[in-house]
Amino acid sequence: MKNIIFHIDVNSAFLSWEAVYRLTHKGGKQDLREIASAVGGDVTLRHGIILAKSIPAKKYGVKTGETILEARRKCPNLEVVPPNYGLYERCSGAFLEILREYSDVVEQYSIDEAFVDMSTSCHLFGSPETAARKIKDRIREELGFTVNVGISGNKLLAKMASDFQKPDQVHTLYPEEIPAKMWPLPVSELFFVGRSTAGRLLSLGIRTIGELAKADPAWLRRMLKKPGEMIWGFANGIDLSPVLETPEANKGYGNSTTTPFDVTDEETAGLVLLALSETVGYRLRTDQVQICVVSVGIRYGDLSYASHQKTLLDSTDVTWEIYQAARELFRELWRGEPIRHLAVHTSRVSGGDGGRQLGIFDEIDYEKLHRVDQTVDGIRRRFGGDAVMRAAFVNQPIDHMSGGISREKRSVDYENVTIC
User: Fold this and answer.
1) 259 within 8 A of 342, measured Cβ to Cβ
2) pLDDT digits over 179-194, tens only?
3) Given 18, 66, 107, 113, which residue is catalytic?
4) 8 Å CB contact between 113 and 16
5) Mapping DSSP to helix (H, G, I), strand (E, B) and coil, where does residue 229 land?
6) Residue-wise pLDDT tens digits, 310-321
7) Is 66 a catalytic residue?
8) What does 336-351 look like in DSSP terms, one character per residue?
9) φ and ψ at 303, to 5 degrees?
10) What is the pTM of this model?
11) Three-class SS of residue 57?
């Protein structure tokens, strides 16, 4: 093959990492991977979602993304442990560090999976299958958890291969193997085919990836627009995307949070929006970029969702300016009903300081606010995110820097957790 691409996927990542940590560092005797178990959020904070599950739990029908209540209906004895994202980030870093010893081109695809371009280095370690087994076994022996490795000539097929039988396996999906290994699979298992697209394909009489591959691409484009043509290419193993060592620049920055209680007044909603604006602004300044579009999203108690956006006159990375735009959008959007989830997103990203058009009636010194934000950022980086807090958040139930990984998920107090 001209190209040799590996896709490495950690098996039940969060649960595996939690299991290894408890066994190795906390004196645990029971391996969470061997019983019906899951990592899940705090139900009392309305974060009670299954984040990862063991293979025994999967046999009961437990699914990632469903509520803990739904999971326990299927498996009453399900052992649910709290998430610890600080631990998971360290495990992910160790996993990626090993991969970079085998290739200079490693693309982190998510916290628990990566693509590795082995085209110019594979010969140093043997055949592609031999090299993959070496990587897989080394991760298991040194870090204590298992991975699947998919091998092919492009990213799509490598990823599809890594999803074959688990755990701790190496699978190939070379172009000549597509008819036997990929085409018989349900169309829902094809990368980029979500629940909605799968339903649409089923309504068109397409049930397997092979049937999709043999369909008329022009007809698919008429039925599904541009995505139809793209998934037809995927079904035929076509993918020209390169493995990117440096990730592409963000096209937008945003954060959202599910509040631990229904928000029913504008003042509390404003605090949540300010907290989200804090984290979005911090990320913008860290990456030295600015935005000029702000949007706000609201999810109500009945789970319906609405959003609204506006374009600013000037690009900005100032927290207060983002917040003021978000507050204005909220007032226009909110229909007065209880809120369970709020989001602040930004787009139209530009690099560096594009300058600001000064207005004769400007009453706010945005340059001064920018300098204040940068000073606060520096203090937080040095002394921790809670080193500086706006007075509005004192004695309030809202985390002053909300969104992304919520506070209760960043670490676990193992002294108050029963470890069997």
Assistant:
1) yes
2) 999 999 999 999 989 8
3) 113
4) no
5) helix
6) 999 889 999 999
7) no
8) SS-EEEEEEEEE--EE
9) 75, 5
10) 0.85
11) helix
